[in-house]
Amino acid sequence: MSKPAIEIRGLGKMYRESDGDAAFRALGDVNLTIGDGEFVSLIGPSGCGKTTLLKIIDGLIPFDEGELLVKGQPIRGPGRERAVVFQNFALLPWLNVRDNIAFGLKLQGTDAAAMRQTADELISMVGLDGFADRYPRQLSGGMQQRVGLARALAVDPAILLMDEPFGALDAQTRNILQGDLLDIWDRSRKTVVFVTHAMDEAVFLSDRVVLMGTHPGRVHEVIDIDLPRPRTDETRSDPRFVELSSYVWEVLRTMIGHPRRQVAAAS
Length: 267
Ligand code: ADP
Ligand code: MG
Known about the structure:
The chain is an alpha/beta fold.
């Protein structure tokens, strides 16, 4: 078996107030191993530390306890093998689509011709042919997120970290982008860690869904999604899909202490 892409052992994270004494435990004893090429979603109540965990994996913020290995190596900060797609797209408004996508390559000192070629291939891959010279403000939310995805893919990361990337999009656009993301993942076989608060989205996309709990943030349960691939629109009406989605909801509801709605007594 090849080395796992990501190994997280006993990981803990405190946020400290700037005055130094008060500390908030955002993550405690997080354990999770993510295989190479696996698609894993993180889901859980707001504030359970999903974004924190993703930022730690990206190397953007430090952690206090435990161990985090990427391809068997402890990480010391952001690295070329990891790229992030954010919910708010985070595009540079003064750059057009092509230059936004090429931005990371430019930082790496890639030459102009190679940069343009990669950007144009990605524009095609994410379905934005003809939009290379447009600016972010001229694009719909769905198109802006296609640019966000292409920009992350441009540096050819082994690991793609996505923080509620479709959270700001309408339901139809989101469904289309989910399908497109799976097509791209299928072709590139990157490892994906996908944060979402949408249960159906987590089930539709993933090999495994990681349910996180709070106080402190931790892994509550990991659910294998044994739906066949490729996943298509028919998947959404597959009884197994419905069953898995309701199971995820059941666990989350129990976790946040929401009582099951009383069903009127049958006659
Ligand atoms: P999620 O993405 O699951 O909603 P976050 O990772 O954003 O959760 O936050 C986890 C917890 O850590 C929350 O209680 C949040 O208020 C707290 N938190 C997040 N970022 C900071 C920060 N920079 N400083 C202090 N507390 C933070
Ligand atoms: Mg978050």
